[in-house]
Amino acid sequence: MIISFFEEFPVPRNLSKGELVTWPSRLFIAAKTISEFQNMKRKIKNKNIIDVIYWPVLPEQEGYWISPWVDEDVLTSLFRTILSQRKGFSVMLDLEPPKEVKLYPRCFTYSFHKKKRIIQHFLGEAGERGINVYTVESAHIPLVLRRILGVSFPSRYRQKRIVMYYTSFLRTYLPASVVEQKLAANAKRWSQQDIIPALGLIAPGIYKNELTYGLSELKKEVEILKKAGIKEVIIFRLGGLHKEHVRPLKVLSQQ
């Protein structure tokens, strides 16, 4: 099993945790520009990290994540830059509604639907040009609604779909047994559809107050996914990795 990581805050302290990885892994690094990403990628020397993927993030006032809420010129400029990269370049689009609530009324405009088509077109063209694309979507939003809002697209566009299934907050109001049963049921479907699940959180994200969980919960969830036939899992995020995680995760990657 490939056990990979997101890193939303790629400061040296967080990126240095990559040296703890002793199993096959990918690293998804958030960056505002490709040049910023390339500078950080060059500093990743661990050969166990088999790929480093560009995770573009926008200024918060522009939406932060990628979606039809983002201004058209921002989307087209970003996509043009990505498509100019060499064949084999890897990018991940984090498809989520904007962090800024004041942007939400944009979903009622004509341009919103136009920007959904712009994202679709990018996914198709990237595949034709040999750009490796991953898309991230939230499992906690119904799929029909995700598709309507343009934060999920079918795999026919050749991208690899990642589904965020973060249970650290679910565990505050549901028994662990219920959370794990729900995860197991979803894992069977993800395995059949070749979807990569993302687990966590083991460190907070952009809101800084997100709930996190410990090694025992993470280990149990990776075991559930492995039993369901999942070949790769992504953990949010690298900065929360500690020495006590290393041996259990390495064992799970090799089983």
Structure in words:
- It is globular, with a radius of gyration of 18 Å.
- The protein has an 8-stranded parallel sheet with strand order 3-2-1-8-7-6-5-4.
- It is α/β, with parallel strands linked by helices.
- The protein starts with a strand and ends with a helix.
- α5 (143-149) links the parallel β5 (132-138) and β6 (160-164).
- It has helices spanning 12-15, 34-41, 72-83, 110-128, 143-149, 176-193, 215-227, 243-254, and strands at 2-7, 25-31, 49-56, 90-94, 132-138, 160-164, 196-200, 232-236.
- α3 (72-83) packs parallel to α4, α6 (176-193) packs across α7 (215-227) and α7 (215-227) packs parallel to α8.
- The protein is built from 8 helices and 8 strands.
- The mean pLDDT is 96.
Topology of helices and strands:
Layout: E1 2-7, H1 12-15, E2 25-31, H2 34-41, E3 49-56, H3 72-83, E4 90-94, H4 110-128, E5 132-138, H5 143-149, E6 160-164, H6 176-193, E7 196-200, H7 215-227, E8 232-236, H8 243-254
Parallel strand pairs: 1-2, 1-8, 2-3, 4-5, 5-6, 6-7, 7-8
Helix pairs in contact: 3-4, 6-7, 7-8
Distance between the termini: 8 Å
SSE pattern: EHEHEHEHEHEHEHEH
Residues in helices, as a percent range: 25-40%
Contiguous uncertain segments of 5+ residues: none
Give the percentage of residues in beta strands. 15-25%
What is the overall shape?
A: globular
Rg is 18 Å
User: What order do the strands of the largest sheet run in, or round the barrel if closed?
Assistant: 3-2-1-8-7-6-5-4
Coarse structural class: alpha/beta
The pLDDT mean sits at 96
